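Practice record 12: protein with nicotinamide-adenine-dinucleotide.
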Amino acid sequence: MILRVNLPMDSYDIILERGCLKNAKDLLNLNRKCLIVTDSGVPEKYAQLVASQCFAPTLVTIEQGEKSKNIDNWKLLLETMLRNDFTRTDCVVAVGGGVVGDLTGFVAASFMRGVDFYNIPTTLLSQVDSSVGGKVAVDLCSVKNTVGAFYQPKRVLIDPDVLSTLPSRHVSSGLAESLKMALTSDAELFEIFRSGTALQNVDLVIERSLKIKISVVEQDERESGLRKILNFGHTLGHGIETYDELSGLHHGECVGLGMLPMCSDEIRGDVEAALKALNLPTKIEGDIEEMMNLVAHDKKCDGGNISFITVEKIGSFEIRKLPLEDWKNIVRSRI
Ligand SMILES: NC(=O)c1ccc[n+]([C@@H]2O[C@H](COP(=O)([O-])OP(=O)(O)OC[C@H]3O[C@@H](n4cnc5c(N)ncnc54)[C@H](O)[C@@H]3O)[C@@H](O)[C@H]2O)c1
């Protein structure tokens, strides 16, 4: 299946097809120098399969984990391209999750003011969310996505077969992002979650999530309005994630917890059941006041006001901006 992302300047296709990794050379222009970037947690066979189809591959494996999304690796990859005489007509390929995709995309955006970028996402989160939309970045001093750009990929290859090796906790974490999109935008997709069959229908879940993401990005490429709905659950979620850094909740787990108080009383029970069906946590453990204070440092908090998304009815949303204290009161009253 081909899904088109229509943008004023840089439209592109997403290929969603089981086994498409094997046909990368027919789907991408790999007949040139290709920098392929993967990480140590992604089974080697995926990047090697891509490399074997390139005319002149240079394969770099970074350490797995968020800490690798940094300026040092960005510099290392650019230097590797320079040393290997890459030019503006060569390309960069990400084979990995959101960490590899965000870092590699920013390398592609920066080298000689931009070379072709292909994204081959291998986690569920990156397949349904981060590989599409052109947000590329690295973290600075552990502050997430501080340095980056909007830089669209030339093409995205999504092969759900690679999810067979993804640990189930990462699968659930990725599904939390799909659940997020269902809640704001697609009541039918939510029915799949409600029935507890998201895993059995993962191809359909990926397709419907991508359609939501594409529609949002097409309407608001630079996040000046509608794209904020993709942050549903992320405001409190980031507070939980920062507070909980040491005990290591996954991003999707924090987003799931962050969504709950942003749902109306009417739907919260259904959302909680959907999270449980995905083996995602539903109770916030720890000092909620401290977590909410951490949100004050978040970039969504501006001049004492905070922007956030609420869902009163499944498949719809409200973009809201309130003084921080009012937002805290909403959270306090709903947990
Ligand atoms: N650009 C965007 O729009 C956007 C949106 C959401 C999140 N993000 C970013 O995405 C990142 C998180 O991405 P993620 O959840 O994919 O994490 P990740 O990239 O760290 O991948 C999670 C783990 O899974 C391993 N892995 C990847 N593919 C695998 C496979 N097929 N089989 C087995 N193991 C595999 C990785 O080695 C890693 O250890 C964060 O940095 C976040 O900021 C970006």
